[in-house]
Specification:
By secondary structure, the protein is an alpha/beta fold. Helices cover 40% and strands 17% of the residues.
Length: 412
Amino acid sequence: MKIGFVTQPGHAVLPAAGSIEIWADNVARRLAPRHAVTVYASGAPSQPATDSRNGITYRLISHQSSATLLRLLRVAWRVLPPTRPFFASTLHPRRYWIDVAKEARRQDDEVVHVFNYSQALPVLRRFTDAKLVLHMHCEWLTQLDERMIDKRLRHADLIVGCSDYITDKIRLRFPQHATRCMTIYNGVDTDAPPARTEEATSAIQFLNVGRVSPEKGLHVLLDALEDVIRSHPRLELTILGEESPVPYEFAVKISSDDLVKDLGRFYGGSYLQRLRDQMSPELAERVTFVDRVPHEQTRQYYSDADVFVFPSIFEAFPIPPIEAMSAGVPVIASKAGGVVESVVDGRTGLLVERDDPAGLAQAIRRLVEDPETRRSFGAAGRARAVELYAWPRIVEDVEEAFSSLVQARGRP
């Protein structure tokens, strides 16, 4: 097959930076030995338009627009309802979609796979007869204007959710498209994790990995830890990730969830600084912030952790909890979206309600006090990650879905 993966505009792929780009990289590399794979991505004017590595062809699209024009367009879009934001319009960024579509036609791609941006579908359909796959890693299809989204989904041959949470919501809102929906989970490297580092201290090492952003619930975690350290002072937390808040209009503004809407109070300043200001001196001594590191280096952080904690307010299907499980680390997480599909409460970790510092503190105390449960959860999580989320299994699902689409095209 000739397969094209269209990554999100403005996101780096060489090397892959965000979770979606990491997904595309892992799947593309494993498909490349058997198929002709092209990755379409944003490129700076100084970059060459074409690159090849790991058997993959990269087409880097330069699509910079006038900053003044973009500001004017964003202002103009404010008169529309929040469910029709500029980022979801066909003008964002129109040049990128058109150039990608033209390249896909030149490559004679049989399947073109797009992440999140439904406005790409009608543009791609105009230029190519490839089978079109829309892969959702967020809730936009069920948050944005229903009529607008419905028109775009008519061009999709397959609609993929990264979790049943996402897929089921799409099916419920758009029953006319339900038969073309399926779930393909995010994947994880399940190679044997590195040996745990022997520490001289007896402190329990907690870890959080991800963007430092309000929806990740780090303010809830710090509130919980203020309570816990009174009785368990030998506890340390590493927060690994750069400050990169999800844009307000991408999530908070379009959500109908009260807990998500409440996150608006964290916008207008540095969320990271608010977290630092929130901590007592006693807690600040126990918390370390580490800026983002290359993805492969995160393995050592998981290896050094005793407990992984992930108190998000909303999620589609996050990768860090399954990375922790793959490393044999027990997980404490909130019941946010697709998280409940990966973390099994009472077997691979503990689930707590969202935005519940007291409940989170109780779960933390339980694992601090019970090393045998930590070991049991870690082993069960490792087994679950290997069984369900290993990249070869994910790639098998992708390959089977794409093959079915191509074969269907050839049927009379």
